[in-house]
Amino acid sequence: GLRIGVLALQGDFREHLHAVEAAGAAGIGVRRPAELDGLDGLIIPGGESTTIDKLSRAFGLSDPLRQRIQDGLPVYGSCAGMILLADEITDPAKDLAGNPQQTFGGLDITVRRNAFGRQRESFETDLDFKGLDFSATRDGVAPVHAVFIRGPWVERVGEGVQVLAKVEPSRASHPEALAGTARIVAVRSGKLLATSFHPEVTGEKRVHELFIRMIRGEA
Ligand code: GLN
């Protein structure tokens, strides 16, 4: 069977481990560089991107992981995980010395952190999500119940990055934050997948199943 690592430094990695197991793969918590060996794919969970960045550097995971991504390791990032996969952040947090937060990168996108608003502006909505394997699809589009908790959105997609889902202003809890524009919340490029929301907390299995099909070369 497939061995899927979940970066287990901070954030909701347990939920992702459960989702991976529910989808029929082996879930492996990753905290050390050696634990990157022999993985078929990796998930970067939701949480706090600045903390995951700092811990991954402290644990010596950052450079090896960046290299694995360059070498083609399939990776799925949710929320903070999307930020950590992005090549660019519009508004990176700075540490006390003024150094901006870093990402692993690999996805040619620019993200805006906490874009939809603050914690109390968290919201849930149904999204049209392209490419999910779902018997009730209409035109290849399946609604996904999405939970946004201080999530980012994608402000720019590079060449070869496919947009899988957007939030319409009318569906957000604070529509004014979106300034009249549908905002990109799910993207794919090659074997990299990222969502602004958290399928791991709702029992939505199809995003993890899509990732598994990507790993197998079936999607
Ligand atoms: N706001 C968080 C960050 O910037 C992400 C929130 C989340 O993962 N739920 O890392």
TrEMBL record:
Gene Ontology molecular functions: pyridoxal 5'-phosphate synthase (glutamine hydrolysing) activity
Active-site residues annotated for this sequence: C79, H198, E200
Catalytic activity: L-glutamine + H2O = L-glutamate + NH4(+); aldehydo-D-ribose 5-phosphate + D-glyceraldehyde 3-phosphate + L-glutamine = pyridoxal 5'-phosphate + L-glutamate + phosphate + 3 H2O + H(+)
This protein's UniProt keywords: Glutamine amidotransferase, Hydrolase, Lyase, Pyridoxal phosphate
InterPro entries per the UniProt record, alphabetical: Class_I_gatase-like, PdxT/SNO, PdxT/SNO_CS
EC number of the protein: 4.3.3.6, 3.5.1.2
PROSITE patterns for the chain: GATASE_TYPE_1 (PS51273), PDXT_SNO_1 (PS01236), PDXT_SNO_2 (PS51130)
Matching SUPFAM superfamilies: Class I glutamine amidotransferase-like
Biological role: Catalyzes the hydrolysis of glutamine to glutamate and ammonia as part of the biosynthesis of pyridoxal 5'-phosphate. The resulting ammonia molecule is channeled to the active site of PdxS.
Name this protein carries in UniProt: Pyridoxal 5'-phosphate synthase subunit PdxT
Organism: Arthrobacter ginsengisoli
Gene: pdxT
